[in-house]
Amino acid sequence: MIGQPPPERADAARNRQKIIEVASRMIAEHGADQLSLDEVAKEAGVGVGTVYRRFGDRAGLVWALIDEREHRFQQAFLSGPPPIGPGAPPAERIRAFLSAVVDRVMDQEDLFLLVELGSPKARFGGPYKVHHTHLAGLLAQARPGADARFLADALLASVNAYLIRYQRDERGMSVEAIKSALDDLALSVTGGPPTSRRRG
Amino acid sequence: MIGQPPPERADAARNRQKIIEVASRMIAEHGADQLSLDEVAKEAGVGVGTVYRRFGDRAGLVWALIDEREHRFQQAFLSGPPPIGPGAPPAERIRAFLSAVVDRVMDQEDLFLLVELGSPKARFGGPYKVHHTHLAGLLAQARPGADARFLADALLASVNAYLIRYQRDERGMSVEAIKSALDDLALSVTGGPPTSRRRG
DNA sequence: CATTGAATCGGAGGGTTCTCCGCTTATTTC
DNA sequence: GAAATAAGCGGAGAACCCTCCGATTCAATG
């Protein structure tokens, strides 16, 4: 989403590609929390300085890996079929979106966990801004008068990778149960049944 | 809240005290993000191994510092005067509690920021469990039939230190505005006005 | 091609977190 | 007191993140 005034040099592009390949493979083999940038550099045959020049820091590299699958996800909620895409009423799109975010996070759970313990810049950068803008737009329609941007942050905070993992592993909730509870929360926020509610 | 079968030895207690003192002073002088455990150890006149034996890791030490003010806060919502303490209706206590949590986080903002980038064990340990149990209890009363424990996690996720700081510094929201929006969210969740609502 | 200057590379090194384990000390028991 | 033993101590060192900057390489130009 940012223009690159001078196009990337050939060797730089080659190295970026190689680094991403190696990092993906090492994560698949040893798990994301074992990822050492020193080792990635050595394995990719470049200096560690090159890794940092290309990706800024550890979280930057992780975002690059996340981005590979992110585009398809964004297509779905920006221009895909309802209920997540345009066409369904806002409240319904919100619920479909949140459910999809849960799946999205589970899909690359380790990577999202890593990103979330990076710097704030990393946490709220990357795809977060896109998700937030989208959700805030829908909320503004579904619940005019409320602070849509705050609510968007609050809902996204409820689907952060750490919390989901905690609820799954420590509280023994299934992913379905999490989605159901989230659905209930979204219903409340968008003006659903005030005190009773239909079954999940 | 955990029994300690063998009481702590005198030298160990002395060292714990000394380490906490030194850490508090160093944070007051240089800021929490500059806190180096090596330096704390040297300054306290103990080996770095002693620091880790006593506090487990960096986040453990930070919790110990947070705990010093935590007790007074817990008194307030467990047995203090309404609306945060017993006596007020649950929905009102929830809103008062959330507002107080925001103040609590702002009070030791740097420390909460540090804790939140520790391991999950650190994040959901310590005071978190107490806050969660309290909030879930109130939610179960205010909104029977809903998944109170999930909702408690979701609301607490909305008041995490990173998010508050982000809203304050990047979005330019005042603490009052944050509290007001949070109040709105809590009203929705506890069965407040479905779509319109009174002004914050 | 040869030149040239800007972009890129790479790895030594500073600073940090945390582990490991032989040595020391407090406390209990006789 | 002295001996026994469990707990605690401490610092060397492994592993890691990231910075810095001289050496190198690319690609545009004549």
Automatic annotation (TrEMBL), chains A, B:
Organism: Nonomuraea cavernae
Keyword vocabulary terms for this entry: DNA-binding
PANTHER family associated with the record: HTH-TYPE TRANSCRIPTIONAL REGULATOR RUTR (PTHR30055), POSSIBLE TRANSCRIPTIONAL REGULATORY PROTEIN (PROBABLY TETR-FAMILY) (PTHR30055:SF209)
Domain HTH tetR-type: 13-73
Keyword ATP-binding: no
DNA-binding region boundaries: 36-55
Listed GO MF terms: DNA-binding transcription factor activity; transcription cis-regulatory region binding
Domain of life: Bacteria
Protein name from the UniProt record: TetR family transcriptional regulator
Pfam families the record matches: TetR_N
Family annotation (Gene3D superfamilies): Tetracycline Repressor, domain 2
